[in-house]
Each structure stands twice: as structure tokens, then as C-alpha cells.
Amino acid sequence: MQRSLPLPRGVASPGRRLRPWAGLRWAGLPLMVMLLLLFWQLLVQVSGYQAFILPGPLLVAERFVATAQSGLLWRHTAATLVSAMGGFSIALVSGLVIGYILAAIPWLDRALAPLLAASQAVPIVAVAPLFILWFGPGLTGKLLIAALITFLPILIATMVALRSIPRELREMALISGASRWQMVRYVEAPLSLPIIFGGVRTGLALATTGAVVGEFVAGRDGLGALITIARGLFDTPLIFVALLMLAIITLGLYLAAVLAERLLVRWEM
């Protein structure tokens, strides 16, 4: 048996890809954030804007800490998370089920496609007051608003994923005696998950948008309501605090979706 010779230092093995910039991949985001904060602070100092027009990052950071310590920020953040995740859950279940049905019945897809396109053509800001009028200013209306804006990306991703499965694999599974559940479990789900997760990531990002729109229209709690209150008080630093928390929530949900995808779709990583 021949033994392979050790490779010189710095030479990658044939089975491993060379990634010279892998160590710098995660350094890009903090660097960009630091440059943005520096530019922001310089802009405030050079232009001489008042705090109610454009507060500096240090003032926003101080207000963020003060609002967090008082508990006000966490109460509004929790309300937005409940609306966003509740609406996303509704959209995820309905999008997967309806997407599976439409992918399996082409004529039904052709019949409902114009209605689905029209439902997304109307801006969510224009539809939100109707939802609040019909379902009240409570949690139900906000859940439905978040679900409406999240539904279509998940639906389209599900249909595209299922239709991209080769027909030969389905026929081989049927010939082997696979039941409907076995077809879903061992053929359709593994092959469609990578594409479906693309819609899930988009849906999670849009869910917070839908929740905030509902809070803009009606609501005493939530980051959208906090922005409305701060705008009425001309408290611009508080508006920036709410926007920063929204960015943190959206980024966290996106990273959670990426982690779930890596756990469930190992063969794609």
C-alpha cells in the first residue's frame, strides 16, 4: 500500500477548496458598521444639525440604553415580535399547504394566479386600515397584516421547489411502492427544502415590516407605535432607537433561518 506524501505547508489538500478570503468574511460587516457610524458622527458635527433633525450616534446609543433600562424598549419589542412571528407562522403553514396543492394541480394554479398577483399588487399600507377596521385594533388584525405580506414569497418558493423535482424521481418512488406520505417525507421534502428556505428567509424579513405597518395604523404597543409616539413628540433619537431595534430583530430572524437551513439541509452546505 502506497502512502501519500505530506504536502508542503500552505498547500491545500486536493479535497479541500482554497478560500483565501474566508478569514475576512465576517470582518466585513463590523468594518462597514464602524465606517457608517464614523461618517454619521462627522456629518452631524460638520453640518451642525440639531438633535431633533439628525441626532448623533452617541446620543442614540445613550437613549437606547436609557430606554432599555426603563423596560419601555423591551415591552414594545416583545409586542412586535409576537405580531411578526404569529403572522409568519400563519403564512408559513398556509403557504406550504396552498403551494403544495397548486403545484400538484396546474389548472387550479392558472385559475388563482391572477387573484394572488392582485392581492400583492395593492400596497400593504393601503390594506392595513381595512384589516384594522374589520378585525379591530388588537392582535388579530396585526397578525393578518404580517401574514399577508409574508404569504406570497413562501407560496412561490414552495411551488417552484416542488415543480423543480425531476419527474423520474417521482416515478421511481411510485414504482418502488412509496405511499403519499413516503413521497413527501423522502423525496419531495428533502429536494425542495433548499428553495423553500429562500422564501422563508424573505418572509421573516417581511414579517417585521407587516407588524410595524399594523402598529402604525392602530396600536399602543410595538415598535411601530413607539415610532408614532416619538414622531408626535419630535423625539428623533427615540425614532432611531426603534429603527435600530427593528434592524436587530430582522438580522436575528434572518440568522435564525440560516441556522435552521444548515441544520435541516446539511447536504447543501
3D structure, described in words:
This protein is mostly helical and 269 residues long. The chain has one domain (56-268): MetI-like (MetI-like fold, Orthogonal Bundle). 77% of the residues lie in helices and 0% in strands. It contains ten helices and no strands. It has helices at 28-47, 57-70, 72-104, 106-121, 124-135, 139-163, 167-175, 180-217, 223-232, 236-264. Helix 3 (72-104) packs antiparallel against helix 4 (106-121) and helix 5 (124-135) crosses helix 8 (180-217).
Distance between the termini: 33 Å
Class, according to the CATH hierarchy?
Mainly Alpha
Mean pLDDT: 81
Number of helices: 10
Number of strands: 0
Strand content: under 5%
CATH fold-level label: MetI-like fold
Question: Secondary-structure blueprint of this entry?
Answer:
Layout lengths: L27 H20 L9 H14 L1 H33 L1 H16 L2 H12 L3 H25 L3 H9 L4 H38 L5 H10 L3 H29 L5
Helix pairs in contact: 2-10, 3-4, 3-6, 3-8, 3-9, 5-6, 5-8, 6-8, 8-9, 8-10, 9-10
